[in-house]
Specification:
- With 442 residues, this protein is an alpha/beta fold.
- It has 3 domains: 99 residues, no CATH class; 169 residues, no CATH class; 115 residues, Rossmann fold (3-Layer(aba) Sandwich).
- Helix content is 48%, strand content 7%.
- Strands 2-1-3-4 form a 4-stranded parallel beta sheet, with helices on both faces.
- Strand 7, helix 20 and strand 8 form a beta-alpha-beta unit.
- Helix 1 runs antiparallel to helix 5, helix 11 crosses helix 21 and helix 19 crosses helix 20.
- Bound molecules: iron/sulfur cluster (SF4) (2 copies).
- The site of one iron/sulfur cluster has 12 residues, from helix 1 and helix 4.
- One iron/sulfur cluster binds next to helix 1 and helix 4.
């Protein structure tokens, strides 16, 4: 038996439609097998709180082995995993094709799916994962002012904490008065120039977050595309990408969201568009999670092939000699955090590469999980752990004394600013798309 993989890691389809997937006894057998390998390895001890929870359980058991841990306590480990994929991506030498076949995040997902199917997921979690429905409701005129006022009000936040389990200290994003999709500016009519690496026209999947919370990021993307004479369109009839539902283990809802999004996206892919989303988790959903859930689906495959992270697209566009570099403004010191869901895309640090093309700009890259995840770090019971996991990131970002704090994931960006506290000094939070637009002076 080899110690670790010599081949490139791969991932098996999720197999969620098989009967065995939801078989609790079989899942617990697999959990025991994998937990035992992890206990003997312990490389991931400092990545998140799932592994320390497991190792503490083993160390406190009568046998000092996994067989001494009560099966019911396995759920404690499952609940601490927010599916960032870092263990799979950066640490584990036993991922497929190694014969031990350890895919810790996908095993956690299977356990979460069983929990969901058993009805053991509460109202708060279902509500928080309904980003589209919440966004639609919260951005109704007048309601939006009330929601934002509630978010800022200490008494109301205490009430939310006690009734709903949303931690009172978590800084939440505001809802926008004008949605991205309503204020979308049409592309100028320019001819698409295909490059060797990039289609010359872009379709945009705007994402719930950009549509309802930070439309400015979406407009920054449009401005950069327009400046580079890349024609764009907006996907019609967009629904949530499904990532929040996936993280909850609600795979049937992921499937129905896929039905809403994929046909229109596949048509755009076949028409030769590059599809861009400004949020890494949503990009990952189409690049990896849906293809692993629906490996035989040709439309899912077409979308996967057409999907780009925006900075992956820009760097490839530069390689094609089709990206302008007429930057007018320097950015100074940028503390840049690459989120887990960008790392998992396996395209390298494309945002860093792009920002480094801007003159008089020093980019310090922090490649470590910030610990928020989509909704995990909002929840009362996980807030403290999310701040603890993020502490090394907060410290490294502050040490740079940056002009800008930036992450491809705007939720991680806000979490980092909160964690830096007074240490952030004069630093401004800005998404990399905003920084790029600033540098162009457009
Ligand atoms: S996927 Fe992320 S949160 Fe889950 S166990 Fe791995 S490192 Fe921890
Ligand atoms: S996931 Fe892999 S690297 Fe991490 S503790 Fe388990 S066996 Fe070790």
């Amino acid at each position: 038996m080899r110690e670790g993989n010599l081949e490139a890691p791969t991932r098996h389809p999720l197999g969620w439609k098989s009967e065995a997937f939801y078989d609790e006894a079989k899942t617990f057998e697999e959990l025991e097998r994998v937990f035992d390998i992890c206990h003997g390895c312990r490389r991931c001890v400092n990545l998140c709180t799932a592994f320390p929870t497991l190792f503490d359980l083993v160390d406190a058991s009568s046998t000092l082995e996994v067989d001494g841990v009560a099966k019911l306590d396995y759920w404690k480990v499952v609940d601490q995993c927010y599916l960032c994929d870092t263990c799979y991506m950066t640490k584990c030498p036993y991922v497929p094709p190694h014969t031990w076949n350890v895919d810790f995040p996908h095993l956690m997902l299977r356990a979460k799916a069983i929990k969901f199917k058993k009805g053991a997921v509460g109202f708060r979690d279902k509500l928080l994962s309904s980003t589209d429905a919440m966004g639609k409701l919260a951005t109704i005129p007048v309601v939006v002012q009330v929601v934002n006022a509630v978010n800022r009000n200490g008494l109301a936040r205490n009430l939310l904490d006690q009734t709903l389990g949303v931690h009172k200290d978590r800084e939440l994003p505001e809802y926008a008065r004008s949605k991205f999709r309503s204020s979308f500016t049409e592309s100028k009519s320019v001819a698409a120039k295909d490059g060797n690496n990039t289609p010359g026209k872009v379709a945009i999947f705007s994402t719930c977050y950009v549509n309802y919370n930070e439309p400015g990021m979406g407009h920054d993307l449009l401005a950069v595309l327009a400046h580079n004479e890349i024609p764009y369109v907006l996907l019609e009839n967009e629904a949530c990408c499904g990532m929040p539902k996936l993280e909850l283990g609600d795979l049937e809802s992921v499937s129905s969201l896929k039905q809403k999004n994929i046909p229109g996206m596949a048509k755009l892919a076949r028409d030769g568009y590059a599809i861009l989303t400004p949020i890494p988790s949503c990009t990952l959903m189409f690049k990896q999670e849906l293809p692993l859930m629906f490996p035989e689906d040709a439309e899912v495959k077409a979308v996967q092939d057409a999907m780009f992270d925006p900075f992956e697209y820009f760097v490839l566009r530069a390689r094609d000699g089709l990206l302008k570099k007429d930057f007018k403004h320097k950015l100074g010191k940028v503390a840049y955090h690459i989120p887990c869901h960008s790392r998992v895309q396996n395209v390298g640090q494309k945002t860093r590469e792009m920002l480094q093309m801007i003159p008089d700009t020093a980019v310090t890259t922090i490649e470590r999980c910030a610990g928020h995840d989509g909704t995990w770090g909002v929840k009362k019971e996980y807030f403290d752990n999310s701040m603890k996991i993020g502490r090394p990131v907060f410290r490294q970002m502050a040490a740079v004394e940056p002009d800008y704090v930036s992450s491809d994931c705007p939720i991680a960006g806000r979490h980092i600013m909160q964690g830096m506290g007074a240490e952030k000094k004069q630093a401004e939070k800005a998404h990399p798309l905003t920084l790029l637009r600033k540098a162009y002076g457009i």
